[in-house]
Amino acid sequence: MSIHRRHLLGLMGSSAAFGAFGTAHAAGGRDPRFVTIILRGALDGLSAVPPVGDPDFERVRGDLATIKADAVSLNDLFALNPAMPQFARLYKAGQGAVVHAVASPYRERSHFDGQDVLESGHEKTGYTRSGWMNRLLTVMPKGRAIPIKGLGVGATTPLVMRGEAEVLGWAPSSLAPVDPDLPLRLMALYEQSDPLLLKVLTEGIETGKIAANMTQTNARGGSADPAVMVQMAQGAANLMAQAEGPRMAALAFDGWDTHTQELPRLARLLGGLDQAIAAFETTLGPVWQDTTILVVTEFGRTVNINGTKGTDHGTGTVAFLAGGAVKGGRVIGNWPGLKDAQLYEGRDLMPTTDLRAVIKGIAADQFGVSGAALSSTVFPGSEPIAPMKGLTA
Amino acid sequence: MEGSLQAHMALNRFGLGASKAGAASIKDVKAALKAEMVVPDLLTHLPSSPQLLDALYAYQAARKDNRSAPEASRDMSMTDMAPKAAGASNMAPVKPKKAAKSAPEGPENPRRQIFIDEVAARYDGTLRAPIIGFNERLVVFWANHFAVAANRSLPVGVLAGAYEREAIRPRIFGNFADLLVAAESHPAMLIYLDNQQSIGPNSRANRKGARGLNENLAREILELHTLGVNGGYAQSDVTSFAKVITGWGVDRKSGQFGFNANQHEPGPQTVMGKTYDQPGQAQGTAVLRDLAGHPATAKHIAYKLARHFVADTPPPSLVSKLEKSFAESGGNLTAVYAALIDAPESWAPQPTKIRSPQEHMIAMLRASDTNMRPAAIVASLKAMGQPLWEPPGPNGFADTADVWASPEGLSTRLEVANSLSINVAERLDARELSQSLFGAALSESTRTAIARAESRTQGLAILFMSPEFMRR
């Protein structure tokens, strides 16, 4: 109620106030917030939300199946990675949901192209001028008293929020530090081709001059640093909580490409994500009730563990939904199974839900955007993909 | 667009790194390099040394007024930057009212603004414009060979850029002797290496016998600028040469080189076995011209050029070719560069040199077609260990991998490469960029590492830190 009152007070000074009032609340009588968090690097959905009840889980996951011991049960089939106690609490309170075996239309395995497809909203690669969230801003039903503005968080606005619609930008000042994953990748590169640089880099890492430990909880990183994730969430939520602040925001967290040491790395990263979601809840205050946070990644990872206690690039994965507007407490989707014949190309989790259906459903339910606009402007060529209704209240 | 392997080598080994135009625009590689053997942009829109010294003197005079004013509120941090030997500063407070009004009304310290203008003129201009940038590489090489350190004193700081523009740029394709004379007689060098204060023991200025010689410039000319440390000179040569160039200083009124006959040591002097009895300034010029033509100088310059462009330990056969060209042409620098380009030793396909931080920075900005704020460039170069025109000593910045390939250096390069990548990731794809920058020279391992990067930003950072990009 207090939200509506503040909203109304904000309108009093405007001569168009009363004319606008009726349509401002067309979509369910509230003032929704929509946040998309992109996890760059491809989150392994099978470690984030392990299907511990699947008879093949332990067989296909090898050492990665040890997550089962500590995971928090969500239902008969699925459990949640223990690094996410806040999300577990939201799930139980009906404010958190998981979509499993989900994927964008992209079916190759390049991070760049996968992220471009995920964020551009096009079916194919090569569209990098605007993102679906920005175009969503352009098709909002007319007549709102307060125009719906977008917010890009980070040193650069994620592609998903870039485009013709003007968006705000905000970045925590501590974003500049080097992602500690980068020196490890350079180390692997120098090992193959440059002994001198390898020696110098190794010395830098060994003496602590170069931070390169993904599992170290206090490592200073860019947006792969849990502390920075929380800062980004707080900064975005502060702006979104304001009466005339942005209603949509996009954030990107790095570091999810877990080819090695997957479980300890995910413990740190998922912990950061979990804290970031909790920071949104705390900072948004009463506005949390009207909020939907969608957490997505460009693709999943191989079902089988690789030789370095990690997984390689795959296809199907999970998406998280969190917020007061979410009809939570459930894992959504059709489980494809983990038997060899059930896998995509014999190696990846088979995607059974198109991510665009999830987003179209949120856009339709929360903002009242028409199906036609969603299929032509927001996700061009997506007519066959029906909005998944009822994800949010 | 890809170019030939040789075109990529020309861009990286002899140039500033590929820009947007890329290697594809270079057809005949050696011809393209030789086409760039023309006097570079002289940046005449920037203020001259006399103008800069005028601004500095005005600033110093205003500060002196402030200091002598009884109620002047002084900024302690600025006091440190004020000139020390300013004479009788406690006499006759001038216009105390105005002086008491504190700094903002007086002239500003010109150092900051001129540095910003110098950086912008180069990093947004001369270092970005050329296809290859061979001539600009030579400007950097020679400015470092005849190094002045801008952090030595305020006058050198104000003049460092003008020194490069006035003494170095116009002469890098001429005769070495002309370049040498211009460098040693520029106010920046004369102030930096103390020759301004060097007084002939028997000169008129030293009638009371209280002052004397300063050997600094004479020694560095012999050791660093001409013969080289093992060039066969003795302490007596240093002392004699120092006497020869007494009186070489800066004329306070004109702000230019001035020969002060009162400071000059009278009489003939013997340097490297030859006696010079020319009057006044001509004596010094004659010694410099002979030093320029000395065989040890030819060897020294040949070695330094070969080391700079080709390898930390250059092939001796290459050094001899350059040395021969230097000697036979009488120090014609264009002939020496042509010999460098024509020598097969210069084109060994495996790059061995590590780019200096400055070269790395320039290459990143060119490759990504990015302009950075001058202040950010200055700060980045400093963080990477190569602050602009602030070498550790008159020997300039190091030119070998053992200095630049350090954990600290790599750490700050990572940070700069990472920040730049964040800024350009919106519009650049590291896979395409690496192909256009290195073409066939791109290794499979780097190509794969970039393709597997988890984000555009990370892909670019890997490219900027790859062996292909770090080496030249």
TrEMBL record, chain A:
Residues in the signal sequence: 1-26
Pfam families xrefs: DUF1501
Domain of life: Bacteria
Coiled coil: none
Keyword Aminoacyl-tRNA synthetase tagged: no
Keywords from the named record: Signal
Signal among keywords: yes
Protein name per the record: DUF1501 domain-containing protein
Organism: Asticcacaulis machinosus
